[in-house]
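Worked example 4.2. Below are the chains of a multi-component assembly; read each line carefully before continuing.
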Amino acid sequence: MGSVFGNKVKISVFGESHGTGIGVVIDGLPSGERIDMEELYAQMSRRAPGGDKTATPRKEPDKPQILSGMIDDVTTGAPLAAVIYNTNTRSQDYGNVMSSPRPGHSDYAAHIRYSGYNDIRGGGHFSGRLTANIVFAGAVARQILKRRGIEIAGHIYSIGNVSDAPFDPVGIPQELIDRLNHEKFTLVDETKEQLMRDEVEKVRIKGDSIGGVVECIIQGMPAGIGEPMFFGVENVISSVVFGVPAVKGIEFGSGFMGSRMTGSMNNDEFYYDGDTVKTVTNNHGGILGGITSGMPIVFRAAIKPTPSISIQQNTVDLQSGEDTVLTVHGRHDPCIVPRAVPVIESAAALAVINML
Amino acid sequence: MGSVFGNKVKISVFGESHGTGIGVVIDGLPSGERIDMEELYAQMSRRAPGGDKTATPRKEPDKPQILSGMIDDVTTGAPLAAVIYNTNTRSQDYGNVMSSPRPGHSDYAAHIRYSGYNDIRGGGHFSGRLTANIVFAGAVARQILKRRGIEIAGHIYSIGNVSDAPFDPVGIPQELIDRLNHEKFTLVDETKEQLMRDEVEKVRIKGDSIGGVVECIIQGMPAGIGEPMFFGVENVISSVVFGVPAVKGIEFGSGFMGSRMTGSMNNDEFYYDGDTVKTVTNNHGGILGGITSGMPIVFRAAIKPTPSISIQQNTVDLQSGEDTVLTVHGRHDPCIVPRAVPVIESAAALAVINML
Amino acid sequence: MGSVFGNKVKISVFGESHGTGIGVVIDGLPSGERIDMEELYAQMSRRAPGGDKTATPRKEPDKPQILSGMIDDVTTGAPLAAVIYNTNTRSQDYGNVMSSPRPGHSDYAAHIRYSGYNDIRGGGHFSGRLTANIVFAGAVARQILKRRGIEIAGHIYSIGNVSDAPFDPVGIPQELIDRLNHEKFTLVDETKEQLMRDEVEKVRIKGDSIGGVVECIIQGMPAGIGEPMFFGVENVISSVVFGVPAVKGIEFGSGFMGSRMTGSMNNDEFYYDGDTVKTVTNNHGGILGGITSGMPIVFRAAIKPTPSISIQQNTVDLQSGEDTVLTVHGRHDPCIVPRAVPVIESAAALAVINML
Amino acid sequence: MGSVFGNKVKISVFGESHGTGIGVVIDGLPSGERIDMEELYAQMSRRAPGGDKTATPRKEPDKPQILSGMIDDVTTGAPLAAVIYNTNTRSQDYGNVMSSPRPGHSDYAAHIRYSGYNDIRGGGHFSGRLTANIVFAGAVARQILKRRGIEIAGHIYSIGNVSDAPFDPVGIPQELIDRLNHEKFTLVDETKEQLMRDEVEKVRIKGDSIGGVVECIIQGMPAGIGEPMFFGVENVISSVVFGVPAVKGIEFGSGFMGSRMTGSMNNDEFYYDGDTVKTVTNNHGGILGGITSGMPIVFRAAIKPTPSISIQQNTVDLQSGEDTVLTVHGRHDPCIVPRAVPVIESAAALAVINML
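Applying the procedure described above to all four chains together yields the following C-alpha cells:
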C-alpha cells in the first residue's frame, strides 16, 4: 500500500523496471484544466536519461499514453491514468532469483519484504525509472498550480563539494523560474556547470558515483495553508519527497544550519510591504507551525550517491549463505542529481496540490 | 484535521496551552499490554519543564488522567484516552486578539489560517506543551515495542556548535540505551554536558536562545518492514517528527553528509554475522528503498532555536496595519533541545508502531 | 483504529461504559463557528435515557465538559474535545472475565477480537452509551451545516409493525423540521405515538424487545457534492451510520422497494422549477452516481431489536467450554428506536460535513 | 478522490466508457500468490455482457492486460496494474456537451460536479463498464482469500417480485459455492430461472427495465475480525458495495426484516459445535458489534432497475434552460441483476481483504 499517496488528490504509482509498463493514476484533479502536453513532455524530458543540456520537447520513447481522464487535453475530473510501456521487458522464463544483493540498493530489504517474489531486474518497483510517473503527475499538478499563481523551481544546490549559488529565500525572479524550469542541468549560477561536470567525471572514471543536494522553492503560496502537527506543510512535503529514491534528508528554511544559530539570528522579523505581511529574511522557509506564512517555501533534499558503481564490493550470497564479492556491470549514471531536480519539483507539486 | 496521525494506530491530539486541558486518544493499540505507569511518568518527566539532570518519577503536576482504554494498567483494546488538565487556564473574557505576531512563532500563520479565531494565549494549539501528549502516547508505544524487541534511544547530538559523541550507527549497547532513556540531559559523552550548558548560558544572559540537533536510534527492527515510495520508513518517521514544533530538518543515516560522498564510501557492504545479514557500516540508516534492512534505524532532527527571546524585535501590528516593535516578556527556556529528546524518541515510536 | 472516522473532519471517539469517562475529539472544524450550547444539550437530551416526550434543555447529568477547541462557545479551529465522566465506574479490582456471552451482543466477538482483555461491564466500548459522543459531535456539525443552509431531520419510521407517515421525499416543510428536531418521540404523524407505545409495551411485559426503522432527510444539500464510486454520498453516509450500534441495514431513496420496480416507475423525471433543476419524484434519494442531485437526501436505517432481554437464553460458558443458559437481569430499554433518531441524524451530519 | 478505496490493500480504479481504456491498480497484495488467470477470466466472463447461462473461459474481447505486479502469474508484491482497452472509443472532436440528462442516471449530478467537463459518452467514468475493474480486482482477491479458507458466493435473490431460495444463513455446502461461482444466471433454486427470465421479458418488450436483489455469503471468516464503530465489517463492506452503480440499499443478516422482530426472535443463541462456538440461527449475519462472530457473513444489496429505458421521459434541456422530452435509443440490458452478482461478490472480497 506504499505506492499510493494523497488525500484530496490521490496518486497511485505502478510498474516494474522490466515489466510490461509503468504508470500512474491521479484521482481527484479538478475538471476543466487544459494540460499543455508539450510542456508536460518537456518536464519528462528533463528527467529522462541521456540528452543534452537543455530540455526540449523531442521524440520521447517514454511518451506516456493517456488512458483516461482527459478529452482533447482537458481534464474531465475522472482519474487521469497514464502508462509508459517498457521496451526492455523481461522474458517470461528468466530466473528471478536474488543471490547477491547490491550494497546500497533496496535488493536485500525488498527480498525480505516480499519473500523473494519481487521482480529484481533493474530494481523492479524500486527502480529510479518509476520516478517518470512522479514527473508526469507533477507536471500535470504544476500546470494546475501555475494557473493559481503557484510556481515551483529547483536547482542543483550541490554535487559533491561543488555548490551552486543558493536561491534567495525571500523570492526569486520570474525569469529565473522560467529558465530553470526548462533546463536539464539546472543551475542558478551557470558558471558552476563545468566545475560540477568535472566533479562527476572524476568519480566516473573510477567507476564510482557522487551525491548532491537539490534545492526547491515554491512561490506564490498563500498564507494560511496547512494543518498543525501531523499534516503541516513540512510533514506533507517530506512524506512525498522521501518517496523519491535516494533521498536521505530534507530541511526547510535554515534547516540544519539554523540549529546552530541563536533565536535572534534565526527569527524572521515581520514587516508590511504595502498591505502584505512579509518577513525580512526567510529562515522559516515559508512555514511556521506547519502553516504557510505567505513567504516562499524553501527546502533542500539530500540525494545519496547512486549505489550503482562498477567497483568490486563485498556482499553476501543469499543462496549459499556465505560472504562473496560482487562487481556490477553495465553503464551507470555516476550522478543522478541533475535528473533528480524535476522529480523533487514534482514531488513538491504533488504535496502542494494536496494541501490547497 | 492535522492533529490526527496514523493508520494502524491512530493518534488524535487535542488541547490548547491555556484551555481546560490537553490530551490524546490512541486508537488501535493491541489489547492485553501492561503499561508500567511509573516508567511512563518517568518519560513524561524527561520532557517536563524544570527539574534536575536525571528524570526520576516524582510528583508530577502534569500527571495525565486515563479516561478509557485500560483496566488495572492493562490495555483493553479500546481507544486509550488521557487528559492533562491545565492549571494556567484562560479566563472566559480575556481579549483573544492577535495584534503583534512574534517572529519565528506560528502566530501570524495561525491567525490567517483560523481567521483570527484561534486561541493565542501561550501559542494555543501550537504550544510546545502539546508535546506532552506525544510523549505520553510514545511512552505507551515504547513499552509495547520493547516487548517485541524494539528499543529507541535519543541524545543531544549538538547544541549550537557543541557536539556530543555520535551514536555508533551499527548499534549501541543495551546499557547505554538504559542510561539514556532515564536522563533529562541526555548525552553519550557526559563530559560534554558542561560545555553545552555553557553554550546555553551564553545566549541566556543575552535574552537569546539556541538550537541543536537530536539524534535517535531504533534498535531491534526486523528486516523487511516498510513500504516502497510514499509509506517508506523515512516517509512515515518524518511525517511524525515534523509534527514536533521547532523541527526544521531530518536526515537518515549519512544524510546530508552522504550527499557529499562517493558511492564507494557511502555504500554499506553486506556480510554474514552467523546467519544474520548485516552491513559493515550503516550509512543507509537501516533503511533501503524505504524498507528496513535489519540494521538500526538512525536519524537526526534539526531543532531551531526557540523563537521565544526577550530581545526586542521588529514585527507588524495586525490591528493598525503598521510596522511596530515587540518585546516578549516572561521567563523563556533558552534551549529546548534537551527536552526535545524524549519527544523525538516518542515520535519515532509512534511511527514504528504504525508500521509493524 | 475503528473508532476514528473522517477525512476533512476527523472524529475520534473513546470511552467504555463503566470506565472513567467517554468522549470525542473533533479535528478539522472550521474556526469562528458559534455553537449554541443549549441547543447542543437539547440534542443530547433527545438521546439520553429516561425523560418525557419533548426534549427540553434540562439538568443533564451527562453534560459534556469541553476540554479544548472553543473560546466562549466559538470554535478556535483546534480540535474540539469533550469528555463526559461516567458516574457508574468500575472498581479497580472487579473480575473482568467473560463467561457467558449474551446472544445478539458484541460480547463473544469482542472477546475473541481482544483476547479477553476488553472491558466487558455494560458492553465496554461497544455500549450504546458511546453514542452520546456521536450526538455531541453531530450536534456541533448540525449547527455549522444549518448556517450553510443544510438541515437534517429524522423520525421513527416504524417500530415493529407500526409505521409513521413517511417523509415526503421531495421535501418537508421547515416547521416540520423544527418540530421534529426538538422531540424525543419523533413522529411525522403524532397520532401514531400511542400505537407505537402499545407495540413496545406488548414486548416489555414479556421481558422482550422490539426493533424499528429510522428515516432521515437531509435538506439544502447543493447539487454536485460527493465522489464517484467509493466516496459517493451513499458510501460515506453508510460508513458512519453502520457505526451506530444495532443498525443492520440502510437504504437510500426507494431502496429495497425500488428493486421490485420497473425503470419507468423508479426513474425520477427532471423539470425546471424556475432556474432550478428538480425531479418530480425522489426515488433516487437525492443521490445519482454517488453525487447529490440537489434533491433532499433520504435514507432509512434498520435498527435491530435491542438484544438486552430478560428472557432466559441458551449460550456457552467460555470458561468451562460447555453450553449453558443465561438470564440477563436489570432494567432494559425494550425499544431503542426513539433514542436512535438523534444518533442517526448526527451520523448523517458527520458524514455530510466530511463531504462539503 | 472517490475512485480509490482501501487501507491495507488499495484499489485505484480508472477509465471512461468510451475513452482509451479502463483499468485498476491494486496496491498492497501479498507477494508470492499464484493467480489462476483462467479462473480470473471466468469471473470476468460472468459479468461480461452477452453470453449464455454458464460462464466459461472464452475468447474475451475485454481481456485485461497486466502491466505490472506479476511474474509468470505470481504476484511480486508491487502494485498489480491492469488495463482493458476500449474498442468503442470516442473520436477526438465529438461534441461532449450534455443537453438532456437521462432520468435515473448520473448525468445531471456529474454535470454539476464536474462543471460540464466530464466525459458523457456512455456514462463516462460512471458507466457500468467500470465494474469490470472491480471484478478483476475482486477475482484476484478471492483467489488469495480462498487460499486462507475464505470463500464468497452470491446469487440472484430476486428479480422484481420473483425470488430465489435464500441462502441458509448458517452456511451453505461447498458444492453449492462451486456451482454458483461458475454460473452467469446464478440461482440456488434453478427452477426459478424461467420465472425470472419471464419477468425480465415482460418489461423488455415494453422498453422498460426491472431491478432486483443480490444476496451474498462469505464463509470461512475467522471470528474476531473487524473494528468497532466506523471500521466494522458492515461499514467496510457497505462502503465498497455502494461503489457498485445501481446499489441503493444493503442489509446484513435479518436486516430490515429484523427491525420488525422481537429480541427473542432475532437474537442468535450460542452453542458449542465441538470446540467451536456457533450460533443456532444467524440473524446477525456473522457480525456483532462490527466484528465477525465466526458465522458466515450474509448480506443483501438492492439493485435499482437500470435507468436505461427506451420509453419517452420528461427531462430538462440544460442548454436552453427549458423542459423537454427524451427518448433514449439503443439496445439496453433490461435487467442487470444477473451480471451484478459477480460484481457484488468482488466488492465483498475487496472489503474482506482489507480487514484481514
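Take a moment to check your reading of the output against the notes. The radius of gyration of chain B is 21 Å. The mean pLDDT of chain B is 93.
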